[in-house]
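hiii, so i know i said id send this last week but things got crazy w the move. better late than never?? heres the sequnce for the chain we talked about at the cafe, plus the structure i predicted for it. fair warning i was half asleep when i ran it
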Amino acid sequence: MTARVPEFSSAGRDLFREIGDLKRVRVAHAAGSVAQRSFIRSWAALVAGVDQGRVAGLECAAALAGARLAGIDAEVLLAGGVPGTDVVEVLERAVRQVAGGLHPGTQQRAYRMLPELVDRASEGAAGDEPPTPPFVSALCRQPRAGATAPGRPRLLVEPPENHAEHCWAVAVYGALLADDLGADPGETFLLGLAHHLHNAALPDAGFAGDTLLGEHLDALVHRLTEQVLATLPAVPATRVRALLRLRADADTPVGRAFHAADVLDRVLQVHHHARAAGFTVEQALVELEIVHAGPVTGYQHAVLAAAGL
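okay and structure toks below
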């Protein structure tokens, strides 16, 4: 029997692309991409004992709002003096623009988490960065391999994403698909976050490198994963260890949601590089209206005409 696959509207497919672009959104007041910061925040919360379902709900709500607001998050708005209730309204407007293709239960959960997202931002503004185990920063530094195939030169694209960004994307995509596939969003999110723990120590050589490792691959991945799990508190370590077994196939709801999310992120990442390489000036000027309507539009067009642009 064929495993159940999620259904995608065009709006739903585009949403995952927009969320994935948070790997490339950065801000002046913090290091790393929006995606990387969410990855770090998620592990900090899990290590501190926060329920995985709540972590998933908060970070998925943040990702949905960020699809349109980019680096303008609840923390930025609060720091700029916007009242908390108004911050919730801004986030709701952003989510409403992108979430229409998601399962109704997924949408409701996202809207329900927005006030908590603002509360968390308010609490976090007064404190230091929460501690995380060393593997978290290692995954932030570890680049992805690029496209590889056995016996062929690898295709490297710049800048490469890192493993934290990939794991974050798989976690968020999986949690957003979970309701469609009958999976638990918190479990799917945690599996996505954790599925490359071994790469904290093992540089990524892609499918080609895995093939060359041959009979050593499985034992190597197991040993390195266990080394990382030993740095986690007992409860999240036990949960992660059990969830990692679901990577083996797509026979369970969580396995299906995870594998759907993983393949979507890998292919959307390639689409991003192809889209960036094929970007044209006409797209910027005509489709995106980079010179947009305003009181000085006529003057701006005259300047461009004089410059031959």
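btw The chain has a mean pLDDT of 91. thought thatd interest u
miss u guys!!
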